[in-house]
Amino acid sequence: MARLQGKTLFFITSPRTPMKMQPEIELFVEKFSGRTWNTRCQEEFIACLATDPRFEGVGSVSDPAFSARDRINRGPKALGFVDIKPTIALTDAGRNFLDEELCQESLLRQMLKFQLPSPYHTETSNNSGYFCVKPYLEIFRLIYTLGHITFDELMIFGMQLVRYSGFETIVEKIRHFRQAKEDCRISYRTFMGQYRDNELMEIYADEIQAGNTRTRESRDTSIAKFIKTKASNLRDYTDACFRYLRATGIVSLSQKGKSLSILPEKEREVEFFLANIDRKPVFIDDEARYKQYLFNAELPILYTDNRQNLIAEVTRLGLLAPRTIETSDIPTLKKALRQATRKRKEALISQQVETLKDYRAYTDVMEVFSEIRQNGYYDVPLMLEWNTWRAMTMLDGGNIHANLKFDDEGQPLSTATGNMADIICDYGDFSLIVEVTMQTGQRQYESEGEPVSRHLAKVKREQSKEAFCFFIAPTINPSCIAHFFTLHLANIAYYGGKSVIIPIELEVFEKMVEQSHRASYIPNPKQIKAFCDYSMQIASTAQSETEWYEAIKAKALNWLAA
User: What angle is formed at CA 191 by the lines to CA 186 and CA 193, rounded to 5 degrees?
Assistant: First the structure.
């Protein structure tokens, strides 16, 4: 069990995106159900997970058992999707989470039950009675009460909500912060930093006064280092909280404003659970009863568990005939709502594609790229992936499919999973995958080099036709250039032969989009193919990877020329 030793809230950071738990839980219960969750089992699990293409990373080399506990104990266990005592088992809540139709609802239920303290998270003698809260429930309450909450507001103030009785105090602090922000005459960054540090100095006043300012990561005992470390931890937990809240489908994210708000069509649902869920943690000292409660797939009761509420929603949306509604049970009515939501999302995405195909969204696409280069969004990697999909859709013909996840409003929710290309462009006779990254330096090569090659090989194998790849990043690391140049020339059976992977700087790609917009005709897939063929031709004659890269860069800047 975990010990509650901090003075602020914490949230699940591993994995950072909740839906990444699904394949790991599937593997966990498929291979290890009935086993005892001991060191040997943990080491076997992380070794098994490291070979799964859906898992990004290999775990800790020095302590693989710790890596296994990090993947299971923090998320799947804490949210009640798996039980690991006395032996490993999938819970009813976990079974629903693995069901694509029920996963979002299941995630919401479990997050609303997450509490501090609990039999899984116990207080020490030094901080007995310090925590008394269901964190996600109270953060939802903050968003609803304030209309929206920014990342910085949640980080500085929301993370102080360790007791639900202090809710109104936190609300007033945020309102005061907003007013002070309006009145301040210094840059927001400076203002926010000073405000955050002052709050941290107050939260940790006892530790600072006692001289307990050493952190695990450093021997530096200065107050400045101590506060910097606490601020970094708060940022990590806040980011994790944002991502889990978004995954419920209840909130909307403003990428530029870096804030969350309740979706208008979800307000009734939020009002219902805020009014009906007990704010006080339950079964703190009774693990058996706590597990019975946590694993229950039907708790807490949600707005859409009530048949009359469901009928009202289905009737309002005109989803079923009145006679059908009268005879439908709750699962049927819920299914109708989910199908309607899915169709609405598909329609919204289709509208985006239509707007992109005739270049009506050109200015917006280019402005988004500009904001990406200036790091102007909450989730820059996600925005790069989404906007590149939009650019490729606009660039020429073909069926352009983004593997990122969209929310119910048709907006980007999370990046593509680790076992697939970011974007797949099907041009009939051939395909093009597009991989994007904000990674720079040697990390770019270590994180992207081999996976990009594998994703291209996967598309070749599945589609049984020629395929190429664009690799787009703000800057291209020389190691990636050398690697992709080598793959042009090496006939590797594992990768489906020679791999044409073309590294393109983001600024150069923007120029390609600009040329497409300015052309007096609509570019066609043959010109994409010609560019890829040119890359292979130059690679076969170039004296070095540098010569090849400079040649394809020059070609990209004039890619529509005959």
Answer: 140
